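Duplicate of #3305? Posting structure anyway:
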C-alpha cells in the first residue's frame, strides 16, 4: 500500500524526477512525456466518470483508471524485463483481454456504423470522446518512447485497445440517448 505523508519532496526542483528503479530523468524526457500523457488521459476519464456517476459505465471507467495507474508505474520502470513481480508493476495480457471483452460486449448492442461519427452527441459521450483522443495521444507518446528503447508491448496494446473501447463506449452512451452525430463528407462545400 502506498503511504504519502508529505506531498512535496523538493527533489524535482532541479527539473528532474525519479523513476521506480531510483534513477532520475529530466522532466521533459520522452519517458516522462509518456507518463504525463497517460496521467492526462486518466484525468479526463475522471471527468467522464463523474458525468456518468451511478451507472455501470462509471464503474467501467473507474476500473480503467486503476489500470492506467498500473500503466504509469509500468512506464516509470525502465528496463526490458516486462514480467510483473512483487516489486515491479507491469500491464499484463489479461488487462488487454478484458478491454477486448468489454469492446465486444458494448459493440454487440450497437447498430453497425454506416459513416464516421463526429465526437459529440450527449455531453457524457463527448467527454468520453475527449478521453479517447487523450488516450490516442498517450499511445503516440508511448510508441515514440518505444522507438528509443524497450517498452512493455502489453502497455502499448492496452493503450491501443483502450481508445477502441472509449470509441465504442461513447457510441453506447449515444445509442441510449441522443444518438451519434454522423460525418457528412463535403457537407459544407
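Output from current build:
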Amino acid at each position: 500500500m502506498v503511504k504519502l505523508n508529505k506531498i512535496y519532496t523538493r527533489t524535482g526542483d532541479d527539473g528532474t524526477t525519479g523513476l521506480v528503479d531510483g534513477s532520475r530523468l529530466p522532466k521533459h524526457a520522452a519517458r516522462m512525456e509518456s507518463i504525463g500523457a497517460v496521467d492526462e488521459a486518466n484525468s479526463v476519464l475522471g471527468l467522464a466518470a463523474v458525468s456518468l456517476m451511478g451507472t455501470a459505465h462509471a464503474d467501467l471507467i473507474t476500473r480503467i483508471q486503476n489500470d492506467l495507474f498500473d500503466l504509469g508505474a509500468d512506464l516509470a520502470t525502465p528496463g526490458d524485463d516486462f514480467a510483473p513481480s512483487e516489486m515491479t508493476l507491469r500491464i499484463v495480457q489479461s488487462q488487454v483481454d478484458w478491454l477486448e471483452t468489454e469492446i465486444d460486449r458494448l459493440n454487440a448492442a450497437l447498430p453497425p456504423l454506416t459513416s464516421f461519427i463526429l465526437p459529440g452527441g450527449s455531453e457524457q459521450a463527448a467527454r468520453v470522446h475527449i478521453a479517447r483522443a487523450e488516450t490516442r495521444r498517450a499511445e503516440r507518446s508511448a510508441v515514440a518512447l518505444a522507438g528509443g528503447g524497450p517498452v512493455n508491448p502489453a502497455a502499448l496494446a492496452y493503450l491501443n485497445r483502450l481508445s477502441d473501447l472509449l470509441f465504442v463506449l461513447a457510441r453506447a452512451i449515444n445509442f441510449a440517448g441522443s444518438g451519434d452525430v454522423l460525418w457528412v463528407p463535403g457537407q459544407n462545400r
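Confirmed duplicate; merging threads. The CA atoms of residues 91 and 155 lie 6 Å apart. The chain is about 55% helix and 5% strand.
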